[in-house]
Amino acid sequence: MPILVKTQSSGTGDWAIIELQGDLEVRSNQDMHDQFIGDLYYNKYGQPILIIGHHILQGREQKLEKPFAVLEKSKSNEGQRLLDTSIATQDVSLLNATSGAERTVLDHTIAQEHKSRQRTEYTVRAVCTKKLIFKSRPKPIIANVAKTV
Amino acid sequence: MEAMEVDENAPQLYVRTPEDVKAIVKHAKLDERQLTQVTQALYYPSANIVADNLRLLELDSHMLHHIREGQTLHFKGGLNEKIVLCTDERTYDVKGAEISNSLLLVPDLKFGAATSTSPLKSPRTGNANASLERSLNDSTEDDLEVPRTLEQRSVLAVFHEYFECREIKPRFRKLGELLQLTRYSGPENEYCIERKVLFSYQQLLDTVQCSRAQFEEGLRNFRALEFDGHIRVLEYEYEYRIISLMLGLISENSWALDEVERGETISALKGIAPEPVVTGLFDIYTIPSERCPGQFSYQESLVARIVAQNILQPGLRFRNEEFMRSWQEAMPEGMSCEMQYLRGLGICDSEGAQPCIRSLAEERLPTNLNDRMRDLFKTKRKWTLEEMEPYIECFTTPTLSVSTLLAKNARSLTEAGVRYYVSKH
After folding, report:
1. Statement: the pTM of the whole predicted model exceeds 0.80
2. In chain B, positions 56-95, which contact chain A (CB-CB < 8 Å)?
3. Which of these, A17, A36, A81, B25, is most buried using a 10 Å CB contact count?
4. Which family does it belong to (chain B) (predicted)?
């Protein structure tokens, strides 16, 4: 059974991707939910500037050569197009015997495909066509005033 | 990189304030006037947001267009198959790509242009407009300070992986093999057919790894037709018999080759073969006549192939001229047979004392490239590129041509100015 990727012509908004070199990490093993990461600014030329902690990153706004679709996996419980039950119980050995050893392994594919009726579905939540990329190393911010930063 | 906690002991959640922003801008020695008016504060997702069911899928322009139009895509693949992604027309190989960079997915994030009330400046370049641009820029720099606004944005998910797609050729082999199981050879032989392996259009489309448009094309290539709710291909002898009867009507009715009547053909075969078989075959084998509207002409290549297939049974070989003669004789008058119609059915072997034509059906060869190469070189010692092409082309991809495949899997030599390929070992 094919797994559907559904799209809505109207509902797909444009989301953004911020690409950072490396990873975001916190010192302690604390819960990161809802925690503040950093500030994003743009200068008058549209260049993005990201300040994370006492690090400043200069980036670039870039059109994605190959845009990203954000897919959301969902499992629907309603039985969709149910297949003929005769297919679900079909004889696997028959398929193997007729196709011969040298042929593609047809083995369980068809039988299994039809038995395990897929209810997984993907929905395109959004499309990302642009990203902010921060390629350079973060530079430290040194405050003049001795304040705890 | 570190996400700094401003107050590490505070249990309550920290929310960025405009004062914090002002302070950090000052520390960073940024000139506020050089920044656009909106600052966006980024946060990690909330605990109640489940993001592990999100995936990033890289799109090409064709897929993007489909998604924008609201069309559905399909992932297809059985247990032992690599998954493919299909649009209505194309098939893609899907691969997970891991990256060391982090991709932060941020809904509703504003890009540069959206954060500024005035148009963004273009970077100064040394072109002729530079001075003009500078004067424009200078004037805006004196603008009155617009108050900074602060907007809060949540990152939805952080990715280190995305799925990339590569367009591939449709995989028809499974379709061929499934249809092979239930070749139709007339109503009297239907009792031998295992009903469980008869498939409907939808069942086959669901399982074969190709798009709907390619599936249609595949069915045409296999000369499959639909009747009694199932997709079937015909036994060659049976197909040949029906086609001969249909072709016989041409001389019987003294039709010109492009004056074939559909209705008459179908009614003439009533009682000889089931009507869906006749209509199906007629529609596969004919094209609308260019000269006479409403009438049809048979496609020479298809007729030549089924005739050749009937003569050139597996394992047989014929002297060259002998084969061409009987082939031509079996064709309706006015149609000719050419070597190119034998593509994938038989080969010309000129190594022996007598050049001969022998049967070599592409569909009967091993599906594995190595095994197939071995079989091919066993059948014939040396091959030209054109001769091998029909047997190898199913392994090609947009980046892997027949000649690269041969360069890898065979040895080439040049004899009397002709390049041949021979076995590697």
Report:
1. no
2. 56-60, 63-64, 66-76, 78-81, 85-86
3. A17
4. Belongs to the DCC1 family.
Q: List Cβ neighbours of A24 (8 Å cut-off, separation of 6 or more).
A: A37, A52, B1, B2, B3, B102, B104, B158
Instruction: Pull the structure tokens for residue B302.
Output: 């298809």
User: Which CATH number applies to B365-425: 2.60.40, 1.10.10, 2.160.10, 3.10.450?
Assistant: 1.10.10
Query: Could you say which of B5, B35, B366 has the minimum Cβ distance to residue A43?
Result: B35
Q: In this structure, what token pair is assigned to residue A28? A: 């302690």
This complex has an ipTM of 0.73
Residue A132, domain extent? 2-69+126-140
Instruction: Give the integer Cα–Cα distance in Å for B44 and B186.
Output: 68
Residue B156 and residue B105 in contact, taking contact as beta carbons nearer than 8 Å: yes
**E strand or H helix that includes residue B415:** strand B411-415
Is B95 a residue whose pLDDT tops 50? yes
> Is a pLDDT exceeding 70 seen at residue B220?
yes
Q: Would you kindly state where each structural domain of chain B is located, as residue ranges?
A: 18-166, 169-233, 365-425
Mean pLDDT rounded to a whole number for chain B: 83
Provide the b/e sequence for B338-359 (b: ≥16 CB within 10 Å): eeebbbbbbbebeeeeeebbbb
Residue B340 · residue B323 · CB < 8 Å = no
| B370-396 residue pLDDT tens | 889 988 888 888 888 888 888 888 888
**Amino acid residing at B189:** N
Distance CA B219, CA B247 (A): 23
A92 to chain B, any CB pair closer than 8 A? The answer is no
In this predicted model, what pLDDT tens digit does every residue of B53-76 receive, in sequence order?
889 999 999 998 888 888 888 888
Q: What percent of chain B has pLDDT over 90?
A: 16
Token reading at B389: 């092409």
Contact B107 A141 (CB under 8 A): no
Angstroms from A79 CA to nearest CA on chain B: 16
The CATH code of the domain that includes A37 is: 2.60.40
In this prediction, residue B123 carries a pLDDT of 63
Nearest chain B residue (CA) to A147: B27
Residue A146 in any domain: the answer is no
Number of structural domains found in chain A: 1
Which residues does chain B have within 8 Å of residue A62's beta carbon, measured at their own beta carbons?
Answer: none
Choose among A69, A106, A24: nearest CA to B56: A69
pLDDT bucket at A148, cuts 50 / 70 / 90: low
Taking residue B153's Cβ as centre, other Cβ atoms within 10 Å add up to 19
> Alpha-carbon distance B177 to B179, whole Å?
5
CB atoms within 10 A of CB B169: 15
Secondary structure (3-state) at B185: coil
pLDDT in tens, B313-363: 877 888 888 888 888 988 888 888 888 888 888 888 877 778 888 888 888
